[in-house]
Amino acid sequence: MAKKKATKKKASKRKASAKKKPAMEMLLVGSKAKAALKAHGVNVAGDALENLNFVVYWYIEQAAKRAEANGRKTVRAHDFMVG
Length: 83
Fold this sequence. Notes:
Blueprint: H1 8-18, H2 30-38, H3 48-69
């Protein structure tokens, strides 16, 4: 049996939702991050890992800027320190 084609409404909804945030490669292992959160006794929403991924990208960017500001091309452990 042939598959049904998406209606115009459904197709336009998909396009609109795709424009919300720029696509970024997932840097996290989803199952590991979910397990770590569940170990704290909380549930994990569907969008939680996507937004955590944005935080990781931001954190990497900050560490790279700190290394560059210190005249280095190498990011070191202390570049990830908060504060």
